[in-house]
């Protein structure tokens, strides 16, 4: 994994769109509760946010997959967050903004609030043309290694039982489940070295 730190706005928009298309193509979960074009736009905007926040990583110069993660102790930068919200309100329907905001509840933050620190994965995606080739496990090795070194858990939220199964196959376990207002479920996953 390498940190993404030298993309143009055009490249960010291109890869953000590909990330959104990968999420929208899954055909279930939260991605089905808003129009496809708004889901794609939301991920394009979030990709820019993660980049501007300094937490976006990619597999290689070929960009087979992407990861956004930080530590509980990381201070969130206000300017990129406000920019993200502003773009969503301007470029997406209000209904879709509400759906995206409602699905990004960060259940893991509530479940692990007593932990001194943790590695929080906010986005992990393998682009569609590279799926089924083992990239998901390779992507997750990066935050898992940091969690192991520090003796803390690595956590993330996901929205379908299929994704729960994929993360379980990568070494995570399901630690919480909550039904959202949309009727969809949010699952918290944890990786912790035994």
Strand content: 15-25%
Mean pLDDT across the residues is: 89
Global morphology = globular
Q: pLDDT below 50 for ≥5 consecutive residues: which ranges?
A: none
The chain-level structural class is alpha+beta
Helix count, DSSP H or I runs of 4 or more residues: 7
The topology string of helices and strands comes to EHHEEHHHEHEHEE
How would you name the CATH homologous superfamily? Answer: Gcn5-related N-acetyltransferase (GNAT)
CATH topology tier name: Aminopeptidase
Percent of residues in helices comes to 40-55%
Major pleated sheet: 7 strands, mixed
How many strand segments?
A: 7
The structural domain count equals 1
Q: What's the arrangement of strands in the largest beta sheet?
A: 1-2-3-4-5-7-6
User: CATH first level: which class?
Assistant: Alpha Beta
Which architecture per CATH? Answer: 3-Layer(aba) Sandwich
Radius of gyration over all CA atoms, rounded: 16 Å
GO molecular function, one term: acyltransferase activity, transferring groups other than amino-acyl groups
Domain N-acetyltransferase: 29-194
Organism: [Eubacterium] siraeum DSM 15702
Protein name: N-acetyltransferase domain-containing protein
